[in-house]
Design brief:
The complex is a heterodimer of chains A (475) and B (197). Chain A has 475 residues and is an all-alpha fold. Chain A has a domain at 3-134: Adp-ribosylation factor-like protein 2-binding protein fold (Up-down Bundle), CATH 1.20.1520. Chain A has 21 helices and no strands. Chain A has helices at 2-17, 20-33, 45-69, 73-81, 88-101, 103-129, 134-141, 147-179, 190-201, 205-237, 241-256, 258-269, 276-289, 297-310, 312-334, 337-363, 365-375, 379-394, 396-408, 420-458, 466-474. In chain A, helix 6 runs antiparallel to helix 20 (420-458) and helix 10 packs across helix 11. With 197 residues, chain B is an alpha/beta fold. Chain B has one domain: Rossmann fold (3-Layer(aba) Sandwich). Chain B has helices at residues 10-26, 45-52, 115-126, 151-157, 181-196, and strands at 31-39, 66-73, 76-83, 102-108, 136-141, 168-172. A six-stranded mixed beta sheet of chain B has the order 2-3-1-4-5-6, sandwiched between helices. Classes of the chains: A mainly alpha (475), B alpha/beta (197).
């Protein structure tokens, strides 16, 4: 008789502990209060206050429940002490109840909840930004070192990267002075640009290596024209901070020539010996810079662009980026005033064209693809245009970017029609890249947090691949 | 004849009923003892706690909050609560005194200038309702220092002999070296066992 009674009460209690009437307020409470609960050994005084509030909440809930069901405390006690309630499965159900009395249980529940929420936040970040920095994923696999060691290394890495950054900055300042271009842009983005240069340049060097010889010739002329043109360029590309930077970096790079690349390889080799992109960068940069100084930019450019755009399908983004690199700075530094005028006209044309594309895109996704080719004569460019429009259509942000970029893309290509789309496209592809890199910096901070969390959750010492982290940091 | 009116105020339920429920739910046969470890700042409470738990005592910083360690001793589970002793934290002490089975009060035996202060704090604790009749163990800590006063002197200064309403003990010790700590714990266990059985 008494046994049956107990069973019924236990079932009822367990049912209640799984019901929304219990779960919602308790979960709400935990989610709201868990933020102060960290995994430090020492407890904060505020924990006690929160624990007290929790006790009161549970008291209230249980009291309401007992009234509702019509059992008294004795029955409740008997039920809870019955063998059924002591089973392993039910013990976890009773955890939140136990937490009222046992601060340690309460604390562990809260710490766990806090961790869950933070991991959730990280997941959201990941979903929103695509992928978390690879070092985050590496952290899972390469967890061998202790946290202390990890922190030490991290600090070392941070210090080194700071050194490097300073070095880079001072070098850049020097170069800028040499060039005489007063337009200063946020230098923090430059490394980015260069790394993308490096990546994209890999296919390019063979094409451009011959033009690199021309660089020496053009150099004399350019240095004089630079003074006039750079401001102009800036005026054009004001909207697009990156293009300005890029160009600046480019001209600067060109001036410095090989000595710079030497310096670069010296500086970059230090932190990430195994880092592929960096080593490539140092090797390739001069080659990329070469076209900047080519005597006949318009001639050298268009073949380049065509070649590249034809091979777009294979390695689209990389090539395009490189193409844009080549396309951008070349004409500006090289072209005469009249040519620049032409370019500006083309810019207007391109803007119109782009607007048309946008309009079409908005009207029909499908017809847009049909109309895009009409506007752009070359078949190779057709593909790129469509890609541009589709990407732009899918993400409004990208549309805005392409618009902004559109203003500065026109200058480079000598022929208005064939080149713009690739330029547009490349601008598109590069823009998100830049954003993602900026995001990456933010993500890195969070990532560190995530590391800690992971460590706590998985209960294993870990070691993030610091080289990767470093890489991200640099890029 | 006492009428039992339902529902009774829930605090009574929580304080007695739920407690026993939970103890039984835990399924532990061990007797659990709640010990509160108090004393002025820099008395060596956390060091003592870590010493009890056989942990490293070289990396201890002033406690801003509180630490909890569970130590198994004499077939009992001692849950020791070490609460920071800085002046600004002391008002929080009384929040931790409920259901306390034993008070450990730690004194820096070499800090003569603050003997009066520590005595005042102790007498306030003794008067706490929640500590009524609760046995108190005083650790005359830092006996490893040359300037440390002997336990008997401290006991006199604290007027321990006037405590009539509870068991008390003063134990000279050095939390750093561990000397005397175990003696204190033995007294605790014997005392608790006597009291609870």
């Amino acid at each position: 008789m008494a046994e049956d009674d107990c069973e019924w009460v236990v079932e009822s209690i367990v049912g209640y502990l799984g019901s929304p009437e219990w779960v919602i307020p308790v979960t709400d409470f935990m989610e709201m209060k868990c933020t102060v609960f960290d995994d430090e050994d020492e407890n904060k005084l505020s924990y006690t206050e929160i624990h007290l509030q929790y006790k009161k909440l549970v008291e209230k809930l249980l009291d309401n429940y007992m009234q509702e069901v019509g059992i008294n405390e004795q029955q409740f006690l008997d039920a809870c002490t019955s063998p059924i309630a002591k089973s392993k499965t039910l013990q976890s159900v009773f955890m939140p109840v136990l937490a009222t009395d046992d601060f340690q249980i309460f604390r562990s529940l809260m710490v766990q909840k806090n961790m869950e929420l933070q991991l959730q936040a990280l997941r959201v970040i990941k979903e929103r930004n695509g992928v978390l920095p690879e070092c985050l994923t590496d952290g899972v696999d390469v967890m061998t070192e202790l946290q202390q060691q990890e922190m030490k290394i991290l600090q070392e890495v941070l210090r080194k990267s700071k050194e490097e950054y300073d070095e880079e900055m001072s070098r850049r300042l020097r170069l800028e002075e040499e060039v005489g271009s007063s337009s200063s842009s946020s230098c923090s983005d430059k490394p980015l640009v260069q790394s993308s240069e490096a990546q994209n340049a890999t296919p390019a060097p063979s094409q451009q290596s011959d033009t690199s010889k021309a660089k020496a010739k053009g150099k004399g002329d350019n240095s004089s024209t630079n003074g006039h043109h750079t401001p102009l360029v800036n005026g054009n590309t004001l909207v697009n901070g990156k293009s300005v930077k890029k160009q600046e970096g480019k001209t600067a790079a060109a001036e410095a020539g090989d000595e710079r690349s030497a310096a670069k390889s010296g500086s970059t080799a230090k932190p990430t010996a195994g880092c592929g992109s960096n080593s490539v960068e140092s090797r390739v940069l001069p080659a990329v810079r070469a076209p900047v100084k080519s005597a006949e930019p318009s001639v050298s450019l268009s073949p380049d662009s065509k070649e590249q755009s034809s091979s777009l399908n294979a390695a689209e983004s990389l090539l395009e980026e490189a193409h844009r690199e080549a396309g951008f700075s070349k004409p500006y530094t090289e072209l005469s005033a009249s040519q620049q005028e032409q370019l500006q006209q083309r810019a207007v044309y391109l803007r119109q064209q782009r607007d048309k594309l946008h309009a079409l895109k908005k009207e029909h996704q499908k017809t847009k693809q049909a109309t895009a080719p009409e506007e752009t004569p070359t078949t190779t460019t057709t593909t790129t245009t469509t890609t541009t429009t589709t990407t732009a259509a899918t993400t409004p942000e990208v549309v805005g970017q392409s618009q902004r970029n559109g203003a500065c893309t026109p200058p480079p290509p000598p022929l208005p029609l064939p080149t713009p789309p690739p330029a547009q496209h490349s601008a598109n592809s590069s823009k998100p890249k830049e954003i993602s890199a900026e995001e990456r910096k933010k993500l890195q901070k969070r990532k560190h947090l995530a590391d800690k969390l992971k460590e706590e959750v998985i209960k294993k010492p870990f070691n993030c691949c610091l080289l990767h982290r470093k890489k991200v940091y640099l890029s | 004849m006492v009428f039992r009116v339902l529902p009774r105020p829930y605090h009574s339920f929580i304080q007695q009923g739920l407690l026993s429920v939970i103890e039984k739910l835990k399924g532990s046969t061990e007797q659990e003892v709640r010990i509160v470890l108090l004393g002025l700042d820099n008395a060596g409470k956390t060091t003592l706690l870590k010493s009890l738990a056989s942990e490293d005592v070289n990396t201890i910083t002033p406690t801003q909050g509180f630490n909890i360690k569970s130590v198994a001793s004499h077939g009992m589970k001692l849950n020791v609560w070490d609460i920071g002793g800085q002046r600004k934290i002391r008002p929080f002490w009384k929040k931790y005194l409920e259901h306390t089975d034993l008070l450990i009060y730690v004194i820096d035996s070499a800090d003569k200038k603050r003997f009066e202060e520590t005595g005042l704090e102790l007498s306030e604790l003794i008067d706490e309702e929640n500590l009524k009749g609760v046995p108190v163990l005083i650790f005359a800590n830092k006996q490893d220092l040359a300037t440390a006063s002997p336990a008997s002197e401290i006991a006199e200064g604290l007027n321990l002999h006037t405590y009539r309403d509870r068991e008390w003990q003063i134990q000279a010790c050095s939390a750093v070296s561990g000397e005397g700590v175990q003696d204190g714990m033995n007294w605790i266990c014997n005392n608790i066992v006597n009291k609870k059985k």
